[in-house]
Amino acid sequence: MDIDEFLLEIKQIDWFGHEKDHNGEYHMIFSVFEAYDVWNSQMLKTWEPHILSLESTATERIGDAQIDEVFSRVSSGIGDAVWKKWCDFITKRHLEDEAGLENEMLDMVKRDMSWACIEKILNAPGFFCALLEIYKNGYFPCAWIGDYPLGKAVVL
Predict the structure, then answer these.
(1) Between helices 63-92 and 102-121, what is the axis angle to 10°?
(2) 30-88: per-residue pLDDT in tens?
(3) Which residues fall within 8 angstroms of residue 17, CB to CB, at 6 or more apart?
(4) What is the Cα Rg of the chain in Å?
(5) Of the residues 10, 14, 19, 125, which has the maximum number of CB atoms within 10 A of its CB?
(6) What is the pLDDT of residues 99-152, one digit of tens each?
(7) Which residues fall within 8 angstroms of residue 76, CB to CB, at 6 or more apart?
(8) How many C-alpha atoms does 141 have within 13 Å on its Cβ side?
(9) How far separated are the first and last CA of the chain, in Å rounded?
C-alpha cells in the first residue's frame, strides 16, 4: 500500500461518530479531560514501545525522509476533516466546557494514522492498524487497559 491508497481508506472514516455498538469491546469514557488527564500516562506507557519499535524498523526499511513524508501527507490529508468531526463530536456530546485540548487530541489522531500508514507500507500490520480499526468504528482510542493485545482499548 502507498500513502495515496491509505489516505483514500481513511477518508471514509466517520471520525468520532461511534454510532456502532461496541458490545463491551472497549472501556468507554465520556470526558475529554478524563481522556487526557487520567489516561494519558497509560496511553504513553502502551503507545511508546510500539512507536519506538516501528520507528526503528521503518528507519531501516524506508528511511527518515519517507517517514517524514507519511506524517506530512497524513496530517494535511485528514487535518481539516478530523477537526470538523471533533467539533461536531464536542457539540453532540455537550463537552463545550472541556475545551483547550483540541490540538493535543487531534495530533494524537494524526500520529496514530501516520504510524498505521507506515505499518501498511511495510506490510506489517500491528498495534497502529489495530487502532485504525477502532477509529473506523468511530471511537477515539486514548489508552489501553492490560498488555496489548490482551485487555481492551479505552475509548472516548
Answers:
(1) 140
(2) 999 999 999 999 999 999 999 999 999 999 999 999 999 999 999 999 999 999 999 99
(3) 85, 89, 138
(4) 15
(5) 10
(6) 888 999 999 999 999 999 999 999 999 999 999 999 999 999 999 999 999 999
(7) none
(8) 28
(9) 29
Q: Which of 116, 132, 81 is nearest to 3 (CA)?
A: 116
Contact between 73 and 118 (Cβ < 8 Å): no
Q: Which residue has the cell 495515496?
A: 4
**All three cell numbers of 1:** 500500500
Residues 6 or more apart from 104 whose CB is under 8 A from it? 36
All three cell numbers of 27: 472501556
Maximum CA extent, the chain? 45
**86: nearest Cα among 108, 69, 102:** 102
Q: Collect all residues with Cβ–Cβ distance below 8 Å to 101 and sequence separation of at least 6.
A: 32, 33, 36
- Alpha carbon 135 to its chain centroid, in Å, reads 6
Grid cell for residue 35: 481522556
Stated pTM of the model: 0.95
Phi–psi pair at 22, nearest 5 degrees: -95, 0
Residues 136/72, Cβ–Cβ less than 8 Å: no
